[in-house]
């Protein structure tokens, strides 16, 4: 499979064609919108009401959370579409920069590199706990937000809400849906490093209660901070809705996204604070200085292609004003294949032809992946409000049937040549992916049932609780190409040629997971409350049931006879609606204890005696300070540590890696007058400890950093406005993520700008 090399001119033409298509579609829509506007110039009934804050939606879009956010006994951060638009955000990882302590801090292990939305939250990898409309979204890809209404971040165990998930939280992306109006929102953006992006959001009502919505996206850019790193993506998301405003509603959605990116293996950490040469023979590296953070250590063959296809059908029926049932069926498939070349670490990987450090070479490793992830699910949810005597009930219950499948295709290994440490030459070709017939197949079938209830005991006091039971069955088989060398090599059967696929694993496993939560809330006033919450969340050892089944019952950290990992979270907090209930203030103390963590024994076997703890507090403010001033801010202090078991942080402390102790985020926007608006913000990420392994001389941690962004907006007319976003305005040089061994890191993006023209009808 060869890399598709397109010239900037050809890609520019493709984006121009896409933009032209958007304009072509929008022309009749604009005309019709103008006609509708003229028709509405008749007598109008004016009703004065408080406009809701665009920065504080007030309610989760997931029906499992039936209470307003102010009365939900959990730490939930909702990033609405308006914030994404004001910041010029177009992907999930950047959107999550609005949530303190959450981010892509981990760059991969040894020679392997993380790709896509590799998110850490409260000391734990949360990449497998990303959902779209409450349904698991599997795949290590970067998720665009062109079809996203809002992003909801739930901190603390989410097993009761979604089943098998990370012990410290989950992320739920809410998709845009048709609505009963006709209008168009389009944008065209240009920016640093030849950034070009165009989007179209067109909604058309037809009939008395039906609507069609179409979202389109095209983007092409170079990475301003990294030579040779490019990204290209296109997306289309049509949707239909029938029965809007009636008791029976049907929604049909389709999403297609294709990406052609250059993956980034990072930059050597030579010269960073805390770095020292791995041995005496390479001691010259101690004084040789940092490498240029723009350097690209991959090859011309490197690529990362992915295709996402998702089909969703949801039916809703209102039995009454207080009872609604929803049934959702979704099929989704994410195909991804990539070739990612990254430098290796350690003294044995450095070639020294002479004493001149400028001539030294570093070995490289080619990371190869050819994978297909599929999910098929049917979920039924019912929500109802009713009274039993003097006690009010707010119930959400449901059942889910899900099949997840993953196929990893075996490919022949590639050996890239070494690369100069300070002056890398990436203009080489090492070939492409070539399947060798081997593969690994995993299937997990899950049946889940859950029920939640909020009891209004008195006007001021509420109790809430819920329980979920998941039964899962996983089957796994794999075949390995024989005749290779090194770890995991399989000998060829007598008479079989090299690379013959040989079945090495054929196993299955089953299990049950029980998760529950319990909370209480007391309204101190009409505007404020205090609450407590306690929750239990479980997941199989290793967190991934495919890996669980692959390991079997042998000597493995993911043995099938191990108990599920269990997380217990306690939270006490308070939430207040102020400024005419348009500004939500929240404060919470939390503690999560993770039990049954698998640890390696001195004799090489494994046992479940490890425990971890993450505790701290979080403060947030979202909404409007006044009619012209909007804000979204948060601060967290978190102590994440190993209570019992092996040290996982390279600095020798008990701290969990990739977890900033302090994190702060702020974004606010002010409307100066009818035409001008300004915005700006800053975020702080404290220093990170990296993971521990046999690395020598590399930094054990990264330094904390501040980054500031700004925005100016100008309205040309009621239908057209411009906005200029400037990111990292002080051009701060910082480490955004570091790999486990500390030999490589990803630099933060330098100062860039984005100019966007928005059209609204």
UniProtKB/TrEMBL annotation:
Record key words, sorted: Cell outer membrane, Ion transport, Iron, Iron transport, Membrane, Receptor, Signal, TonB box, Transmembrane, Transmembrane beta strand, Transport
- InterPro entries assigned to the protein according to its UniProt record, in alphabetical order: Beta-barrel_TonB, Beta-barrel_TonB_sf, Plug_dom, Plug_dom_sf, TonB-dep_rcpt-like, TonB_sidphr_rcpt
**Signal peptide boundaries:** 1-33
Bilayer topology = Multi-pass membrane protein
**Span of domain TonB-dependent receptor-like beta-barrel:** 271-729
Please indicate if the UniProt record lists Transport as a keyword: yes
Per its UniProt record, what CDD domains does this chain match? ligand_gated_channel
Q: Give the PROSITE patterns listed for this entry.
A: TONB_DEPENDENT_REC_3
Q: Which family does it belong to?
A: Belongs to the TonB-dependent receptor family.
NCBIfam families per the UniProt record, alphabetical = PRK09840.1, TonB-siderophor
What's this protein's name? Catecholate siderophore receptor Fiu
What organism is listed for this UniProt entry?
Rouxiella silvae
